[in-house]
Each structure stands twice: as structure tokens, then as C-alpha cells.
């Protein structure tokens, strides 16, 4: 008797903001695992901003998805059947075939992870996973942070941004400033994450809000948002300021090209560096990142918040909600509880 898997497919390329009809849930026959393959039940899957780019026909920083194809993404799961000696039944694994309740894939395409006593396995999709390494590589390598720097991070209450600000504080920043989209997020940044100052970017011109929050200027900017935020940071930079250009979520749903920063000439006089990066190029930092960040999690120095949507049925809504700021910390979709 055949067993079905439940999956989400992209059926239409979103025009602007994605709508529910751009996606469809399907049932597909689950193949039997071949030699060297494993069957993995999803525990939790990630929805991430880069997926919006994959829905367009043109390549963003990740290749496009085909229409009618099951979407993919970071997932943590448990092996429920195995034809691989390397990855036994019961193992906890990470893989990239999310948006489905069960995946059948080559054991070479999963990485085995350890249980996290007292902590949810979904942290492997956030603080201990791709967003965490993005924050680490962007701040410490790309922006060349050093103690005493004043740091500004946009999208500061999200998965990457909330870690950037905390990493900077823990490593001796002189000032950590964040921007976010609601008063609750702004309060959270100050009260619980220890940011020196934070503002809601809806409250006025970002340049004015940033100048008030960082009156002595900034040395490092970690940009998740782009557009007006980038222009404001260029204006606020001190001499030799460095920006890690991580993302530009303010333009991901744009249907025409947004205007660029109007003050690029300031790069000359201030000797600024703006450097784009992709986390995949910085995998060599993984050991130092995991060791330090696991320690901070264990000793309680780091807050790793998640916004959790329950059930595969909610995955599209979770993704759409992420793009409009419905998350604080990492947005994850949980399909099953962590194993005992
Ligand atoms: N370069 C890389 O390798 C790499 C890797 C991972 C992520 N990224 C990028 O890093 C950024 C953050 O990713 P994440 O996973 O941590 O997502 P996230 O920040 O957890 O979630 C997205 C957030 O973007 C904010 N947002 C949405 N529209 C906005 C707008 N018009 N202006 C300002 N903020 C807006 C929302 O928060 P508010 O309520 O504050 O608006 C929302 O919560 C994204 O740009 C992503 O593409 C890049």
C-alpha cells in the first residue's frame, strides 16, 4: 500500500506580496528509500526571506523555483527508516527539503545533529543554524567589528538582526542601536536584549531617528533592510565605517526597482566600505560560531526567541506573515513535537 506525503508547491509567481493562491498543498506518493537513502519525518521547518527571491523567474541570490515544484528549505527532523549505514534510524538530522511532512533523500544530503537538552531542536534553524552563522560572519568577518565600535542593525528584532545586536553587545560594542517595525519589538530590544537604543522606523525619517539614537555616529552597520535604512546609515557613519550588506527586505516584494541611496558620494570623504556577503561563503567559521554561541546559550547570556506556527497547513501563512513582520526572532513552523 502506498503512503502519501503532504507538501507545498509554488503554482504561480507572486506579483508583489505573495497571496495564498500562489501556493497549493498536494499529496504525493512517498517513494520507498533506495540504497543509501533515509526517510526523515519533519519536526520543524524554516521559512526565510530568501525564499521570496526564489519565487521570481529571475535568479536572486538563490536560483528560482520551478512552478509545480515542491518548495525547499531548512528542516530539522528524525530518521524514521534508513538504508544507510552512516545515518541510522532514530538519528536527528538537518536537511534542505522542507515544505513537506516527510522527505526521502540521500543520506549524504543530511547532517546529523545532537539533541539540545532543555532546548527545542528548532534552534538549529535559527540561532544555531543559518541565520546565526549569517549574523556571526557578517558582523565579525564582513564588517570587521572590533570592541568599542558603535553598531547599528536594521531588521533588529528578526532572526539575524536580534543575534547581531546581542553578539555586538557581548563582544564589547560601545553602543548597539536597532530598528524594527513595532513598538513591542522596540521595547523588547531595549528591555530584554540589552540594546542601547532602538526605534520604530515608521515613526519618522530613518536618518532622523538614527541620528537621535546614535548621536556620536556609527562605525558598523549590519543591513537587513536596504533602501532608506542604507541611506541613513551612510549619513550616520563615522570615518572608516563598515557595512555588512546582508539583505534588503524592504524591496523583496517591489514590482519596480527601488531608488538607490542618494548619498553614495559620502563613501569617498568618509572612506567607507560597503560589503555584500552570502553566508554560504563563510562555512569555515562554523566551528568557532557553534562553540561560542552554544556557550552563550548555555550560560544564559543570549536570548534566542522564536515565533512558532503549528502545523504544515500554516506554512504559507507563516511565510507571508514573516514578510510583513509577524515574527519576533526566528519564524519556524513546527510539525511534530521534539522526540523525548
Ligand atoms: N546574505 C545572506 O547570506 C543572508 C542569510 C540570511 C538572511 N539574509 C537576509 O537577512 C535579512 C533578515 O533575514 P531573517 O531571516 O533574519 O528575517 P527576519 O528579520 O526574521 O524577518 C523578516 C523581517 O523583515 C522586516 N521587514 C519586512 N518588511 C520590511 C520593510 N519594508 N522595512 C523594514 N523591515 C521590514 C520584518 O520586521 P519588522 O516588523 O521590523 O518590519 C520581518 O520580521 C533578510 O534581508 C534576508 O534576506 C541574508
Number of helices: 9
End-to-end distance = 30 Å
Radius of gyration: 21 Å
Report the top-level CATH class of the largest domain: Alpha Beta
> CATH homologous superfamily of the largest domain - what is it?
Medium-chain alcohol dehydrogenases, catalytic domain
Major beta sheet, specifics?
Answer: 7 strands, mixed
Average pLDDT confidence is 97
* Helical content class: 10-25%
Order of helical and strand elements:
EEEHEEEEHEHEHEHEHEHEHEHE
Structural class by SSE content: alpha/beta
**How many domains comprise the coordinates?**
2
Strand content: 25-35%
- If you consult CATH, what is the topology of the largest domain? Quinone Oxidoreductase, Chain A, domain 1
The unique ligands bound to this protein are: NADP nicotinamide-adenine-dinucleotide phosphate
**Number of distinct beta strands:** 15
The CATH architecture of the largest domain can be given as Alpha-Beta Complex
Low-confidence stretches: none
Principal-axes shape call = globular
Notes on the structure:
The chain is α/β, with parallel strands linked by helices and 340 residues long. The protein has two domains: 155 residues, Medium-chain alcohol dehydrogenases, catalytic domain (Quinone Oxidoreductase, Chain A, domain 1, Alpha-Beta Complex); 152 residues, NAD(P)-binding Rossmann-like Domain (Rossmann fold), CATH 3.40.50.720. Helices cover 24% and strands 25% of the residues. It is built from nine helices and 15 strands. Strands 3, 4, 5, 6, 7, 14 and 15 form a seven-stranded mixed beta sheet that branches. Strands 10-9-8-11-12-13 form a six-stranded parallel beta sheet, with helices on both faces. Strands 1-2 form a two-stranded antiparallel sheet. It binds NADP nicotinamide-adenine-dinucleotide phosphate.
